[in-house]
Amino acid sequence: MNGGTDGLDSNGALTLSGGSVIVTGSASRGGGEGGLDSNGALTITGGTVLSAGISAGTSTLPTSGQGWVSVTFGANQAAGTIVHLATTSGTQIATYQSAKAFRQVVFSSSQITRGTTYAVRTGGSVSGTAVGGGLYTGGTLSGTQVSTVVAGVR
């Protein structure tokens, strides 16, 4: 899904429980606009979820359910930027190549464990299994490490 403002917008609760959800929000507006936007609880209990935008989500990310990571860059990243998420030992979990500018990315899958530290890289090349919407899983790790994130912490 590609939103001009919000990608997925719920005026109540938003539950993601399976399948693949790749959503982008606004490439220019933050604040109340995001890839995932719910006025009620956001729950992720299964599947693969990637949200990107100037704000990847305006919802409060869940404290239970499936693990997730949230990466916020210090500046907007240009369309076409490649972001890799990997274990700290160097196993690539996912790669995202954006179709438009973004500043934040949220990723959730059964491979993410709350409290575990993951490496974030940018650049390099895209590899792995295409999920859709610029998201690839598995593959060969490349790029330059720019930060680490702890799953379940925003």
Explained architecture:
With 154 residues, this protein is mostly beta strands. It is built from no helices and 12 strands. A 6-stranded antiparallel beta sheet has the order 10-11-7-6-9-12, with no helix packed on it.
Topology:
Blueprint (H helix, E strand, L loop, with lengths): L7 E3 L3 E11 L11 E3 L3 E12 L14 E10 L4 E6 L4 E6 L4 E7 L8 E6 L6 E4 L2 E3 L6 E7 L4
Envelope shape: globular
The structure class reads mainly beta
Number of strands: 12
Low-pLDDT stretches are none
Q: What profile does the largest beta sheet have? A: 6 strands, antiparallel
**Percent of residues in beta strands:** over 45%
The radius of gyration is 14 Å
Q: Helix segment count? A: 0
Distance between the termini: 23 Å
Q: In percent, how helical is the residue content?
A: under 10%
- Adjacency order of strands in the biggest sheet: 10-11-7-6-9-12
- Mean pLDDT rating: 90
Order of helices and strands: EEEEEEEEEEEE
Short description:
With 154 residues, the chain is mainly beta. It contains no helices and twelve strands.
